[in-house]
Amino acid sequence: MTIFRWIIGVLAALLATGALLSFALFIGFDIELWLKRARTLRRGLYMALLLWFNVEVWGQVLWTLIRW
Fold first, then answer.
1. Residues of the chain by 3-state class (helix, strand, coil), percent to 5
2. Handedness of CA 68, 65, 1, 46 (dihedral sign)
3. Nearest-5° angle of CA 62, CA 56, CA 49?
4. How far is the C-alpha of 13 from the C-alpha of 44, rounded, in Å?
5. Cα–Cα distances in Å, from 66 out to 4, 51, 54, 56, 60?
6. In terms of Cα–Cα distance, which of 66, 43, 52 is closest to 5?
7. What phi and psi values does residue 19 have, to the nearest 5 degrees?
8. Who is most buried in 3, 19, 39, 65, counting CB within 10 A?
9. For every one of its 68 residues, what pLDDT tens digit does the chain have, with 9 covering 90 and above?
10. Can you tell me the distance from the alpha carbon of 24 to that of 30, in angstroms, rounded to the nearest whole number?
């Protein structure tokens, strides 16, 4: 499970950095393409965090059922 957390953490950090950089480029140059990319990366970040949350919760559920 620790490996999964690291993978999701690195992926989330990359997506957040990309979204922030894309948004900064949109603010700086006023090009709509960068805003679309920032939104796409932000959605990817949300999906990665929701995946992590679901795996954590359902992993605990399965672990509890197995140990019961």
1. 95, 0, 5
2. negative
3. 150
4. 11
5. 20, 22, 18, 15, 10
6. 52
7. -65, -45
8. 19
9. 799 999 999 999 999 999 999 999 999 999 999 999 999 999 999 999 999 999 999 999 999 999 99
10. 10
Tokens representing 47 are: 């999906």
> Alpha-carbon distance 3 to 61, whole Å?
19
Report the run of H or E that residue 47 belongs to, with start and end.
Answer: helix 32-67
Q: Are 49 and 6 in contact (CB under 8 A)?
A: no
